[in-house]
Design goal:
Layout lengths: L7 E6 L3 E9 L5 E10 L3 E2 L2 E2 L2 H19 L5 E6 L5 E10 L10 H15 L4 E13 L2 E4 L9 E12 H12 L4 E7 H9 L2 H6 L1 E6 L4 E7 L2 E8 L3 H12 L3 H11 L12 E5 L5 E5 H26 L9 E4 L8 H9 L3 E3 L13 H13 L14 H16 L1
Parallel strand pairs: 1-6, 6-11, 12-17, 17-18
Antiparallel strand pairs: 1-2, 2-3, 4-5, 7-10, 8-9, 8-10, 12-13, 13-14, 15-16
Helix pairs in contact: 1-3, 4-10, 6-7, 6-8, 8-9
């Protein structure tokens, strides 16, 4: 007997915090129940694993706690790749199919040409996190999204590959597997966040997804429903904390708390005369005006946004993003953050939202995205279902037809 549900697990790893998530879905694949646990990270810095043992110890405790609270043993999970050294590259493949008399393109042809492009594009020291067909070419026609069933002499494909350094990926996998868990897949944390926040309509129209992470900011570009590009900036929310700690002469940990509670991205035209009492080492308190806090943040954000705009403007056009720029991350909640970014980029900017999910906290977007990716890969078995058009009998008939077309 088939189980009523199959739980899916994800593990989002970052330099500041690690989050484990368990999700249950209904028969349609919709997530109906979510359980999360988080803890401070250890053994990882600037998106790179520095001490494997420390990281594994944290992971073991976190997943053990999630397993105990859910009353179910965790066997495998999808993990996010925190590295800022991800690469986006393009590869192409070409498959002659003229030796067949009817020359009809089958799903097998599409798989073959995609695998060819994958193998040609993969470097010796690279680990592929995802491969996404950008378009297919049929004879003299190009930019086709689905050539299945068309007649052709040859089939080409343009493939986008997102890769990590192989040693970094293996270190990440090892940190999890040495705790007794199997890693089903490794994907980019930002791509995972986009899976739980972006609507299909936004990706189809064209949008820019800006993920404000702890170590770095990653920009994903979508068009025609597909990931078209990825950029990475080597600064993130920790740079705002560092600026506050340096300018206000306060501990780094305290800077993050003050930023979240009293920070604003626009100091001008706001009532920021409130004073914040900061504890000193001698157990006295020092008052700091909220306006000073916001001035520091505004100046730092101005520098960061200028660098984002420089790359944004040099590689893309505003017309490429009818759905605008969608921002994800805790710092995007700062008062005036979205307005300031919109002024800088000259394009509509909105806050990412998680719709149709039992949780709304966008800080969990990456973790939830991991289980959504896992669900998308999970085979849905619908034996002898006569309505719905995708039962096993139809699948067998379609595959038989493709084999006939390919060889006869």
């Amino acid at each position: 007997m088939m189980p009523k549900y199959v739980p899916h697990y994800g593990l989002e790893i970052a330099s500041d915090i690690i989050t484990a998530v368990r999700a249950i879905s209904d028969k349609s694949g919709k997530i109906t129940e979510v359980s999360c646990k988080s803890c401070p990270s250890s053994g990882i810095r600037d998106g790179a694993i520095k001490e494997l043992g420390l990281l594994s110890e944290v992971i073991s405790g976190l997943l053990g706690g999630l397993s105990a609270s859910c009353g179910q043993r965790i066997k495998s999970l999808t993990v996010s790749m925190p590295s800022l050294r991800l690469k986006v590259k393009r590869s192409s493949g070409l498959l002659p199919i003229s030796e067949r008399s009817n020359k009809i393109i089958t799903s097998s042809d599409m798989d073959k040409v995609t695998r060819q492009a994958y193998n040609l594009g993969l470097g010796i020291d690279e680990y592929v996190l995802c491969s996404i067909p950008q378009s297919y070419a049929v004879d003299n026609q190009s930019q086709l999204m689905n050539p299945l069933g068309l007649y052709s002499h040859r089939l080409g494909v343009e493939l986008l590959l997102v890769t990590a350094l192989y040693p970094e990926a293996q270190n990440l996998i090892s940190s999890v597997e040495r705790c007794g868990y199997k890693v089903k897949a490794v994907i980019s944390s930002s791509l995972a966040a986009s899976l739980s926040t972006l609507r299909e309509e936004e990706k189809a129209r064209g949008c820019c997804f800006l993920d404000i992470g702890y170590d770095f900011i990653r920009m994903l570009v979508f068009k025609d429903g597909t990931l078209r590009g990825m950029e990475c900036f080597d600064f993130g929310s920790k740079d705002l904390d560092c600026a506050l700690a340096r300018e206000l002469k306060i501990p780094y940990e305290l800077a993050g708390q003050i930023k979240a509670s009293y920070g604003a991205a626009f100091a001008a035209n706001k009532d920021l005369e409130q004073e914040v009492l900061v504890s000193q080492k001698d157990k006295t308190y020092r008052p700091i005006k909220r306006r000073l806090i916001s001035n520091v943040l505004e100046n730092k954000l101005r520098d960061m946004f200028a660098l984002i705009k420089e790359r944004f403007s040099s590689r893309y056009r505003i017309e490429d993003f009818p759905a605008g720029v969608i921002v994800c991350g805790k710092d995007a909640l700062l008062d005036g953050f979205l307005e300031s970014l919109e002024d800088s980029l000259g394009v509509a900017v909105g806050l990412a939202k998680m719709e149709g999910l039992p949780v709304k906290d966008v800080s969990l977007a990456g973790a939830i995205g991991l289980v959504k990716h896992s669900l998308s890969q999970y085979p849905k078995i619908e034996l002898f279902k006569l309505s719905g058009g995708r039962n096993i009998i139809e699948k067998i008939a379609r595959k038989s037809k493709e084999i006939y077309q390919e060889y006869f």
